[in-house]
Amino acid sequence: MSWRVWVPLLLFSGFLGLAAYQLTQPKDDFVQSAMVGEELPYFDLPPATQGAQGAASADFRDGTPRLLNIWASWCLPCIAEAPQLEALKQQGVEIVGIAIRDRPEDVAQFLAENGNPYARIGRDDLSEVQLAIGSSGVPETFVIDGKGVIRYQHIGDIRENDVPKLLAELEAAR
């Protein structure tokens, strides 16, 4: 057999080996925000529901670290994280919420059923703020220091075992 037969066979074998290797690597579903370490972009959102205060980037520049929680009333994991957000609020953590693509009446119903841990809730109808801070979905929570700089990103719902990590990140942001 000539070398012309072996070259394509070796190339094909190399391709199969590379594909097999890639299939054995762990999948990373999470897209980390490139904004961690950067200042929050400017925003000034209207209230998400009647009786709430809206949210603005200026709210994060008063020297106090806080959480910024991106959520929606139609998001099932947001319901699952509600008790943890309430626990953080009970520990003195100020949480600012941004409701994504939501209706005021749905936000009000969600808060009535699941509690309201938010000091302010802004309405982001077009997900402009969500995209500007590098959030890839709901829920996501960001630790923002007192100068308005994003210090940490928690992707997905907050579980009970995530609370100590968020508290530590808030303390580190002081």
What does this structure look like?
It is a single chain. With 174 residues, this protein is of the alpha/beta class. Helix content is 36%, strand content 20%. The strands form 2 sheets. It has a 5-stranded mixed β-sheet with strand order 5-4-3-6-7. The longest helix has 22 residues, at 3-24. The termini are far apart. The relative contact order is 0.21. The model has no long low-confidence stretch (mean pLDDT 92).
Q: Which residues form runs of ≥5 with pLDDT under 50?
A: none
Helical segment count: 5
Tertiary shape: elongated
Q: Order of strands in the sheet with the most strands? A: 5-4-3-6-7
Oligomer: single chain
Overall number of structural domains: 1
User: What is the average of the pLDDT values?
Assistant: 92
Please count the beta strands (DSSP E, at least 2 residues each). 7
Secondary-structure element sequence? Answer: HEEEHEHEHEEH
CATH homologous superfamily descriptor: Glutaredoxin
Q: What would CATH call the architecture? A: 3-Layer(aba) Sandwich
Strand count, sense and barrel status of the largest sheet are: 5 strands, mixed
Q: What is the radius of gyration computed over CA atoms, rounded to a whole number of angstroms?
A: 22 Å
Predict the CATH topology: Glutaredoxin
Q: Mind telling me the CATH class?
A: Alpha Beta
Name its key features.
174 residues; alpha/beta; Glutaredoxin; two-stranded antiparallel sheet; 5 helices
Question: Layout of helices and strands, plus pairs?
Answer:
Blueprint: H1 3-24, E1 44-45, E2 55-56, E3 66-71, H2 76-90, E4 95-100, H3 104-114, E5 118-124, H4 128-132, E6 140-144, E7 150-155, H5 163-172
Parallel strand pairs: 3-4, 4-5
Antiparallel strand pairs: 1-2, 3-6, 6-7
